[in-house]
Structure prediction request, 401 residues.
Amino acid sequence: MLGRPLRGVAFDVAVAALVVLVSLAAAVNQPGGWAATAVGVGMAVALLFRRTHPGVVTVAVAALALIQVVARWGPLIYDVAVLIALYSVVKYGRRLRDGVLAGAVAAVGVLLAAAQTPNVIQWWVTALWYALVTGAVWLVALNVRTRRLYVLSLEERAATLEREREAESRAAVAEERTRIARELHDVVAHSMAVMIVQADGARFMLDSDPAQARTAVKVVADTGRQALEEMRRLVGVLRDAGPTGGEADAAGLAVAADPEHRRLALAELPDLLARFVDAGLHVRSTATGTPPTLPPGLELTVYRVVQEALTNALKHAGVGASVEVVLSYTVEAVVVRVVDDGRGRPLVSPAPPGGHGLLGMRERVTVYDGSLTAGPRPTGGWQVEVRLPLPSEPATEVIAA
Prediction:
């Protein structure tokens, strides 16, 4: 309601209605009669805005209370509105200084109210009683204000941390996509080099050895199809990385600055495993099925997945952990499974470099429409399983002479 929580509005309306009710109930018997009741109703109306404009409400209530003092009506039952206004300005005021000023004004009001209270005891006893009640309200409001500001600071800190995590994740995704794009670019460049060599060979053997020339042309066609598919994936990665020219320029600079500019293959997996063994892991590698001829980009993805999984195992499971790397080949997909027992020791030296862990693996697997499953094992340790579907065999074109 009016941009405010409905629950708070309902509570403020109930408080104001209570002040109006007690003002009307005492209209006949209280000093001042209906004029005093009008002052009480004015205080009640002001309390409706105590959350949004606590300073203004406190000034209005204090002015109405001053009218009551000047008229010498003495303390009345609806003066509870003064305490409510004092509580509100201390709790909701932008600055605590407003609450301190309101407390000083309330202290003066306590003395005036005690002086106008008809009783048979000393006036200072009444003043002490009023001061205790007013001081208790002020301190309660201060405590609530402190807790409220503390909660707001925690919420702001949590929101800031969430924004920072999102920014770091976006930066990591952009960096990993740049790396993937560079590697796929190398794959495409390699395929183009193969096509050029084969095409030149076919041109020279076209008259002397037509059969060999036809074989070379078929290699060119198959390699071209494969390169076209890799190029499609490359364009997809670059397109997802960002639509603005500034981001594209930054990606280009990152590619140019990366010293690791070579194409990795599954033949280098034993060397990779050996590096992690030297780093302190107990690695056991097995392969099932008949390894098919993988496209270079897919082969690179398998290599990077194993590298990232072993890096995470070394960082989190620690030195001395046992890790099992399983490569399963089927006619439909290649499955990579890396499992550690989580029983290592903390690292004393940096782990071999990788990418961005699960985030990087997910980006690479998504490029090839694969699936990634990662999580803790019931018996301890961590498991990463990646399934990468194999591309279908390219159809051989028949060219009629």
Observations:
- The first strand starts at residue 282 and ends at 288.
- The chain is about 65% helix and 10% strand.
- Residues 242-261, 394-401 have pLDDT under 50 and may be disordered.
